Amino acid sequence: MDELLFQNPWWKDKKNIENDINIKKLKKCKYTYKPQLFKAADLKSDAVYTLRGTRQVGKTTLVKLIIKDLLYRNVNPRNIFYYSMDLVKDDKELFEIFVSWHQTVKGNSKRKYIFFDEATFVQNWEKSIKHIVDTFGLENKTFILTGSSAIDLRKGSERLPGRRGVSNPDKLLLPLSFKEFCILTGLKVILEHKNIISLDSISKNIPELKIYQNELNLYLDKYLICGGFLESINSLFGNNLINEETVERYISVIFSEVEKVRKSRVISKNILFSVIDSLGSTISWNKLAKKSGNISTNTLIDYIITFSDSFTLYYLEHFDKNKLTGNPAKEKKLYFFDPFYYYIISRIINLPYTKIDKSTLIESLIGAHLIRNFEQGIYQGFSNIEKIFYWKSAKGKEIDFILSKSKNNIVPIEVKYQNIINPIDYITIKKSFKKGIVVSKNTFYIEKNIVILPASCFLYLLN
Question: What count of Cα atoms within 13 Å lies in the side-chain half-sphere of residue 286?
Fold first, then answer.
């Protein structure tokens, strides 16, 4: 019981939530953000939710903010149960922990809120949840289970058929998008036309975007360094650089995810170097495996999936124009999801950050923002990309991104982050797809079925 009280200090006094380490840390930040992933109706539902996202993205802080809101809405403090799973050894212990708390509130008919933080640390965690729901029922109970491994949460939640309580119970917390970053740190552009990928809508937004282009460019330069993590944002804006403590913490996060599944730090480092070295280029799994220390292709794929299902890295398949889907047999393109990863991985592999080509970082960012906007199932991890691809013709002409929304709605997007854009730069789009978007450095231009606009403006359109 002592450990339960230690993790739930609001049972004695609801004001104790203010002394929580995550809440206190947030109060010291210049910039704070509370993602609206859980609506009031969600918290009134009999449900088993999962909250996924990379470590240090703010899942625990969001949980504590939800608890704080519940307490100040006069929910009985004893009906709010939080437990961090870091040191729980197995599903049996998890069940016993729940029972210890439930014994104290079983005569209370009001809704109970159960937060199991980093549930995937517990082997076979889903067996405990299944046993809890089967034994005590789901009525008047709202569970939120967090985890940094999409694959662990996915496999576990799949073993809970009929016990989730609601449709779409899986939530994903990502680092801030460029638009969210701009709004948080002081730049908000009001745009009237909301169909973000429509050529007509983009064209109508251009006059307003032109007004803010210089400011958006400056914000993009900062975003390329700190990315969308609150800690790195506050560090950069507070010190004009990312402090060493933050960098070391996120380096630790990168390796902890692979070591948690008993993978090698050395092999991981070699693979990260090979991915950085191959940015913007197509490459086969076999060739990437050879570049990564001549490891086996299966080992390479296993590591890549680990990185992608911990929301660190994503890869795109070649677009098959006939089948309107990816071709897994062809080469891939690999990128890191958030720009801050490039900053910290450059430290891991002893590569000066300035050596990473800015145009390639922009390309990576465009792909990540397309994934944010148009992929429906990425709460399952970034190894399940189904709408975003790259394309290369038989003659080797390449288009960076293909957004395949439907048979009649395919949008090619070419990144040309350079000072001058010539018609030759988008001839492949015109010949092969008849329409498309060209992402430039500073150029705005519109011609029939082709829209050209700067990267900072295009990224701001992608929520």
Answer: 4
- Do 134 and 186 sit in the same domain of this protein? no
**pLDDT of 170 above 90:** no
Q: By residue range, what is the domain housing residue 90?
A: 2-172
Locate 117 and state its tokens: 């933080």
Q: What is the length of the chain?
A: 463
Is the pLDDT higher at 94 or at 157? 94
Among 142, 172, 202, the domain-final residue is 172
The residue assigned the tokens 């393109």 is 333
Classify burial at 274, counting beta carbons within 10 Å of its beta carbon; exposed 0-12, middle 13-18, buried 19 or more: buried
Element spanning 404, H or E: strand 398-406
CATH number at residue 78: 3.40.50.300
Going by their DSSP bridges, the two strands 112-117 and 313-316 should be labelled as unpaired
Q: Among the three residues 156, 172, 188, which one is the final residue of a domain in this structure?
A: 172
Task: Give 347: exposed, middle or buried? Use CB within 10 Å, 0-12, 13-18, 19+.
Answer: middle
Using CA atoms, how far apart are residues 185 and 187, in angstroms rounded to an integer?
6
Any long-range contacts for 252-255 (C-beta under 8 Å, 24+ apart)?
A: 253/54, 253/55, 253/56, 254/312, 254/341, 254/344, 254/345, 254/348
**Residue 403 CB neighbours (<10 A):** 19
pLDDT more than 70, % of the chain = 96
In whole angstroms, give the CA distance from residue 1 to residue 99: 11
d(CA 62, CA 50): 13
Residues near 428 by beta carbon (within 8 Å), at least 6 away in sequence: 393, 397, 398, 399, 414
Backbone torsions φ then ψ of 385, nearest 5 degrees: -80, 125
Distance, in Å, from the CA atom of 156 to the CA atom of 386, rounded to the nearest integer, reads: 22
The structure's pTM equals 0.92
The span from the CA of 126 to the CA of 120, in Å, is: 9
